[in-house]
Structure formats: structure tokens, C-alpha cells
UniProtKB/TrEMBL annotation:
InterPro entries the record matches: DUF1178
Highest rank taxon of the organism: Bacteria
Source organism per UniProt: Hoeflea marina
Protein name: DUF1178 family protein
């Protein structure tokens, strides 16, 4: 996971986590990145010096969220936990398994796993319904 410093056209600054630089670009292109303050999709990466603090030096950095956004995030976390609990994790075999299920070559079931941006685009182009499953920063700690 990579944490990017971002800013919107209204000059609100915020941070967000992405799987990679390509993941940010893909999500932005699809309109999935927006400012948590004003909702603007006019978001760009801000200049940021890389820094990885030692575990003992980490401090909690609260997200700037109003109570409604906080509730949405709570519900999103619950949804992600539910999807994870009711799905088979197929890891890097995700594209292959998704195709097998789509073509009736494997049992229809919920699966989760990993796919590159190109693999995900290929699945979507083939008419296979997939969706990214967010990972929250605290899940990596």
C-alpha cells in the first residue's frame, strides 16, 4: 500500500491509500477518487517527501471526516469484512478463477484475490463483473 498526499481544485489537502501508482491512476480515471471535504473529483497528487517512521514513532493521524462520512466508512468496513468472511480467497489465481466461474467451468461462488490493473481491465472487457475491495490502512499494521 502507498499513501499519497492529494489535493483538490479547492486546495483541500488530504491523504489516501492505494495499492500502487497505477491503482491511483485507474481509480482517478474511473471517477472513484474525490475530496473528502468538498467531494470534488478534481484531485491531483501533491508533492510529498517519502518518509517511513519507525514503528515506535508512528502516531495516529485522524481522517478529516464529518459524522456522516465517518458512518459511511464504518458501514464500508462492515461490508468489506462481510465480503471477506463469505468469499474464498484465491490469491493470484483470481483472474483465472473468475473466468472459470463466468464460463461455467467452476462452481459459482464468491471469490476474492489479487489482479493487476491490466488483468482487471481484461476481465471487465470480457464482461466479467468484478469490483475492487478496499484495504484499510489499519489492516496492514
Amino acid at each position: 500500500m502507498i499513501r499519497f498526499s492529494l489535493s483538490c481544485g479547492q486546495e483541500h489537502e488530504f491523504e489516501a491509500w492505494f495499492g500502487s501508482n497505477d491503482d491511483f491512476d485507474s481509480q482517478k480515471h474511473r471517477g472513484l477518487v474525490s475530496c473528502p471535504v468538498c467531494g470534488s473529483a478534481d484531485v491531483t497528487k501533491a508533492l510529498m517527501a517519502p518518509a517511513v517512521p519507525a514503528p515506535s514513532k508512528r502516531e495516529e493521524r485522524p481522517l478529516a471526516m464529518d459524522p456522516n462520512r465517518r458512518e459511511v466508512m464504518r458501514k464500508l468496513r462492515e461490508m468489506v469484512q462481510s465480503v471477506r468472511a463469505s468469499s474464498e480467497d484465491v490469491g493470484d489465481r483470481f483472474p483465472e478463477e473468475a473466468r472459470k466461474i463466468h464460463h461455467g467451468e467452476a462452481e459459482a461462488r464468491g471469490i476474492i484475490g489479487r489482479a493487476t490493473g491490466d488483468e482487471a481491465r481484461s476481465l471487465i472487457d470480457e464482461g466479467i463483473e468484478i469490483a475492487p475491495l478496499p484495504e484499510f490502512p489499519e489492516e496492514k499494521i
